[in-house]
Specification:
The chain is an alpha+beta fold. The chain is built from eight helices and six strands.
């Protein structure tokens, strides 16, 4: 069972780590490229703030974003701001998310996210945790996949392996870090490919943050993954 209250604590802790690290930047470095193609660090911070507000919308029964165009326009609008404004926005929007997340609610209900995706309300805090942790890595300020909490790495690997399970463009694939194993891709009794490597490398490949160079592949080439 998903423990949304525990995940909210993890979100708060991850947000504080990000804000503490980002506070060491300056206005010039906020305008520099992040690790995400085409985005500055300001874009990443703006997205984090707007995503918190979007997930508040989800939990309160409104559309996550009015439209894809509005989402993108809001990020572009907010990306050029100075560091102090960026940090204040991330902190204040995070507080709004925590306030809604701790209010009494039916956490077993189904909510609607972007592009018609549905999920249990109880998983929304974990989804926010994913945003904060991976985008902290994307800022490129000294926090990397190897620094992520072990519980987060395992749960996000579970989530992404499940997401690609049954996908017609991904061959039957076994993933293992030497201790744990996951299956993904098309259903089959025996996998076509086995991908082995450290847990952060597996997550980095699944999440589109690494190219898989740190992984060992048996049975064929490393499968290309569809966009998240």
């Amino acid at each position: 069972m998903i423990d949304h209250a525990r995940d909210l604590v993890s979100v708060r802790e991850a947000t504080e780590r990000l804000l503490t690290a980002a506070a060491k930047l300056d206005n010039a470095s906020v305008a520099e490229p992040s690790r995400l193609p085409g985005w500055t660090r300001g874009h990443v911070l703006a997205h984090l703030a707007r995503n918190a507000d979007a997930l508040v919308n989800v939990l309160e029964g409104r559309p996550m974003y009015p439209s894809a165009g509005t989402r993108d326009a809001d990020i572009e609008r907010d990306a050029p701001r100075h560091l102090d404004a960026q940090l204040a926005d991330v902190r204040e929007s995070a507080a709004r998310f925590q306030e809604v997340g701790t209010a009494p609610a039916d956490w077993s209900r189904t909510v609607t996210l972007r592009n018609g995706v549905t999920d249990a309300a109880a998983r929304v805090p974990f989804r926010r945790w994913v945003e904060v942790e991976l985008h902290h890595v994307d800022l490129g300020i000294g926090y990397d996949l190897e620094d992520l909490p072990a519980e987060f790495v395992e749960r996000e690997t579970d989530f992404l392996a499940e997401r690609f399970t049954g996908h017609p463009d991904v061959p039957p694939t076994r993933l293992t870090d030497g201790t744990r194993a996951w299956s993904t891709g098309r259903e089959a009794e025996v996998p076509d490919v086995t991908v082995t490597g450290p847990a952060p490398e597996l997550l980095g490949w699944l999440a589109g943050r690494r190219d898989g160079a740190g992984l060992t592949v048996a049975g064929g080439p490393l499968p290309p993954l569809p966009p998240l």
